[in-house]
Specification:
Two copies of one chain form a homodimer.
Chain A lengths: L11 H4 L3 H9 L2 E5 L4 E3 L7 E5 L3 E8 L3 E8 L19 E6 L1 E7 H10 L3 H25 L2 H16 L3 E3 L2 H8 L3 H13 L3 E3 L3 E4 L2 H7 L3 H11 L27
Antiparallel strand pairs in A: 1-7, 2-6, 3-7, 4-5, 4-6, 8-10, 9-10
Helix pairs in contact in A: 4-9, 5-7, 5-8, 6-7
Chain B binds a DNA duplex through helix 7.
DNA sequence: GCTGCTATGTGCGTTGCCGGACAGACGGCA
DNA sequence: TGCCGTCTGTCCGGCAACGCACATAGCAGC
């Protein structure tokens, strides 16, 4: 089933380090196996370890009213889990839950902090990652507000496929509903629509992506936007236009007019 | 009308700097007047100036599909606008629009970068601010998903009141609709509901908050949560519980079980 | 094979918001 | 004073998603 599995199973952030620094960093890392469904941090937990997934994927979750939960970010081999440490914090600001089982590099907080000081390329690299994460959160907020469940589901499946590096992965509709913050039946409807169009196939806790291109066409544009942000950062390439519906309603000139 | 106006009209982030550093920073700042409706950055713009509002407030906006826009963050005297620079970036990742007219300290990018290197307290302070911003984005995503317009409107009004430091401020329903990503009529309904309960009073482009406590009770809990995050960061105090509706659906143990 | 658990599918009325259209009200300006 | 642009209020049908309840289907263990 895992047809798209890659040869190299490392983490892209760490790969981006200069070889010397990377070696020093890896010397203090342990390769661990994350179990699907395990909670890495509860909101407000003191962070003990940071994680750099290689095959696994982790969901960042925000909760309101003690029961409604929404996935606001996804971390795979392109990222890291425990971003608060990058910014000098001690506590996890969001719940982190292993969504796709698999391997991840792990380092304890103290060691990680030491590397942040001693490896000159590390902090800038991770700062850049934080800014990407920040943009992803903003995009998810808008996406969740404006896009229908079916398109959001398609986006989620594509994002997960990228991180699982496989066409097929284990997930129940109940879990998907939890991630997208909708009813399970909402997922049933959306998923069966996608299946009837032969974009995906699913059965009892497992989903296979059949046609990636058409699934991408069925997803909202947020998927592609996210990819662009990861690839090019926030340069002009990832620009999305956007104008106020009624410019007249805004007093004053549009550009900065401060003295 | 502006009964709650404070004597000190400075910026809280800059106030938190040690006196010596603050003085050096202010020496290179200009106090400018932001005009309501002016766009400080378009998404993807190279950042030329950063802003530290004192009386003004700025909205950070995310756009999807070239027309649907959502306010994902608000910056007032408690924050700064141009966070990308803190993380070493050059480009604005979100649109920034002056929502409440007023004064702000401004510095150009080059000078700001120099201060980041030379003033030892600045970078840690702003890093902490970024992590707060990040948490605010996540909260907004969940809030936008789960809370009805009336509660979101109440939250928005409270947040704006805090930043305007006045009970009354100028804003049209059209603009509110734009911020919350809903129809103008949706605001009409919500606002007249709040007005009928004597929590606010409004007339033609201006809103007055009549009863702050009851308005807070009418707002979603996200308002209070935000305040806690600003006050205490992500320590245990700001913890919000949250459990999966059906724990059974998650395979494996709940705590981290990696080797 | 049967049992029992979990995952998926369907039906029903309800609700919050949408899109569009239009009527009324306010307030600056001539 | 009266005009006119802007802001606000009300109506309509429609739809996506909700909450609840119950029916079916896959799969594991005995």
């Amino acid at each position: 089933m895992s047809t798209r599995r890659c040869a190299t199973s490392s983490n892209r952030l760490l790969d981006a380090l200069p070889a010397k620094e990377r070696d020093r960093f890896f010397a203090d890392c342990t390769l661990v196996d994350l179990v699907a469904g395990s909670v890495l941090y509860e909101q407000g937990d003191r962070i003990r370890y940071v994680y750099f997934p290689t095959e696994s994927s982790i969901s960042m979750l925000a909760t309101v009213d003690d029961h409604s939960t929404l996935e606001v970010g996804m971390v795979g081999r392109e990222g890291m889990c425990g971003h608060a440490l990058i910014l000098g914090g001690d506590f996890a600001s969001l719940r982190a839950l292993t969504q796709g089982a698999g391997a991840a590099w792990r380092t304890d907080t103290t060691t990680f902090r030491r590397h942040l000081e001693n490896l000159p390329a590390l902090q800038p690299l991770l700062d850049r990652y934080v800014s990407i994460l920040l943009r992803q959160l903003a995009q998810t907020a808008a996406c969740t507000r404006f896009h229908v469940v079916e398109k959001r589901l398609a986006r989620w499946l594509l994002m997960t496929q990228d991180r699982a590096q496989a066409d097929s992965f284990d997930v129940t509709q109940e879990f998907l509903a939890f991630m997208l913050g909708v009813r399970r039946v909402g997922i049933t409807t959306a998923a069966s629509s996608l299946q009837s169009r032969k974009l995906i196939h699913y059965r009892r806790g497992s989903i296979t992506i059949l046609n990636r291109d058409r699934l991408e066409a069925a997803a909202c544009t947020c998927y592609r936007f996210d990819l662009e942000v990861y690839r090019h950062g926030m340069t002009a390439r990832a620009r999305g236009p956007g104008s106020f519906r009624h410019q007249r309603a805004l007093a004053g000139p549009i550009r900065t007019t401060d003295a």
